[in-house]
Amino acid sequence: MQKNYYILFHNTRVNSPLSSYDKRKSRQSFDRAAHRYDKSAALQQQVAAKLIALQSKEGVQSVLDIGCGTGQVTAAMCVDYPQANIVALDFAERMLLETEKRLSVINKSATLVCADAECLPFVDESFDLIISSLMLQWSNDLTQNLTHIHRCLMGKGQLAFSTFTEGTLKEVKASWKSVDGLVHTSDFMGVDTLKQSVEAAGFRNVQIHQETIVSLYPKVREVLMDMKRIGASNAHSDRSKGLTGKQRFAAFESAYEIFKQADMNYPCTWELAYVFGEK
User: Fold this and answer.
1) Which part of the chain is the Methyltransferase type domain (predicted)?
2) Side-chain half-sphere CA neighbours of 32 within 13 A
3) DSSP code of residue 243
4) Are 119 and 149 in contact (CB under 8 A)?
5) Which of 176, 235, 267 is nearest to 18 (CA)?
6) 248 torsion bin: left (phi>0), alpha (psi -120 to 50), beta (else)
7) Where are the domains of the chain?
8) Which among 248, 231, 269, 263 is positioned nearest to 28, based on CA atoms?
9) Rounded CA gap, 141 and 238, in Å?
10) Which residues share a beta bridge with 256?
11) Fold of 23-165+189-211+272-278
12) How far apart are CA 84 and CA 82, in angstroms?
């Protein structure tokens, strides 16, 4: 795999209404999960497919896929825009290796860049479409990150991304809250705040489509194991660094019982936003 840039990281705590993320911890988690990601990432695949279907397909000559993961969106961009210059960026090198494998199966190629999405290593006005599925929620400063994305877009360029919003993991959060006051899950913006961030970064004609997806599990521990298998572990900078004790985890499972459905499954709620804007 030919890398075009060195790995760049931005791991500074910021003045944000949400807690900041430990980028190195997150990168390690996604690197470890890369080889098994597609087997467990049904939700991510569903959301990416909808984002691909919703975004515009006219006049695209250059595309940047931010947080490409195993390359589902990148592969779709290669198919939809066969004459375009496609760039796939991820901060986990093993994810890029999986993207390369996916593209080789369909006899397509893209420029692979290993870098932090908050340090985009591109000159101004490099792309006329920037797309990202379920990655930008990990930004330590979303407005600043979107401002850099705006800079990289050509005049009248398009932004399309999906992200989690407030209400995501509400069952997990409520259950842990009844056990202790520690940070166990990520925080996500409300839709109004999200729109304000996109507009503050300079985007016009911002449109947001909302969706709620409820995943069902036969056991409570499967909820957390599914998150771990795709690398989406808790990477808050202020997370507890110790192991979750058996007693506390048992208390968490007990608290989760109030969400148990009539079919004996346990729900996990994901609130989604599909965001589109113009430069």
Assistant:
1) 64-161
2) 12
3) P
4) no
5) 235
6) alpha
7) 23-165+189-211+272-278
8) 231
9) 16
10) none
11) Rossmann fold (3.40.50)
12) 6
Q: What is the rounded CA–CA span in Å between residue 265 and residue 250?
A: 18
Pairing of strands 204-217, 266-278: antiparallel
Q: Is there a contact between 162 and 47 (Cβ–Cβ < 8 Å)?
A: yes
For the four alpha carbons of 10, 13, 14 and 17, in that order, the dihedral sign comes to positive
pLDDT per residue as tens, the chain (279 positions): 444 444 444 433 333 333 455 556 555 555 555 555 556 678 889 999 999 999 987 889 999 999 999 999 999 999 999 999 999 999 888 889 999 999 999 999 999 999 989 989 999 999 999 999 999 988 889 999 999 999 999 998 999 999 999 999 999 999 999 888 777 777 889 999 999 999 999 999 999 999 999 999 999 999 988 877 655 554 444 444 444 578 888 999 999 999 999 999 999 999 999 999 999
Residue 169's nearest CA partner among 262, 242, 234 is 234
Name the phi and psi angles at 112, rounded to 5: -105, 125
Token reading at 218: 């036969």
Provide the token pair at 159: 């932004």
Find where tokens 């979107």 sit. Answer: 146
Cα–Cα distances in angstroms (integers) from residue 77 to residues 132, 219, 260, 276, in the given order: 12, 37, 40, 16
pLDDT tens profile 216-274: 999 999 998 887 765 555 444 444 444 457 888 899 999 999 999 999 999 999 999 99
CA 260/CA 279 separation, integer angstroms: 45
Beta bridge partners of 273: 163, 210
Residue count of the chain, please give it. 279
- What is residue 54's DSSP assignment? H
Rounded-to-integer distance, Cα 259 and Cα 277, Å: 37
